[in-house]
Write a structure and sequence with these properties.
Length: about 100
């Protein structure tokens, strides 16, 4: 049985969605990535330049952000471009507002 936590414009957030997003945002690098993506779509190579981490570590962070739905990926040739999924982020922030 699925337990729905919050319903925004017909989109249900499940308890597991809230947990995954919360865990994804618990890392300082991922929070900085979200902040950068809130302004515009960014190529993975540009994200890598910003952080003092290896490419596999960046890929790990991006996978976590994509798996919880916060980030979308668009491939152009061999390049990966990332953007913020603002609908999911808005649902999550609306949920947080409701419990405060």
């Amino acid at each position: 049985m699925t337990i729905y936590v919050y319903n925004v414009l017909g989109v249900n957030m499940e308890l597991l969605d809230v947990i995954h997003i919360s865990k994804a945002l618990s890392d300082a690098n991922r929070l900085e990535i979200i902040s950068m993506l809130s302004k515009k779509e960014i190529c993975g190579c540009k994200l890598l330049e910003k952080f003092d981490i290896t490419q596999p570590t960046l890929s790990h962070h991006m996978k976590i952000l994509m798996d919880c739905g916060l980030v979308k990926e668009r491939k152009v040739g061999k390049w990966h471009h990332y953007s913020l999924n603002k609908d999911i982020l808005m649902n999550y922030t609306d949920f947080l507002k409701e419990i405060l």
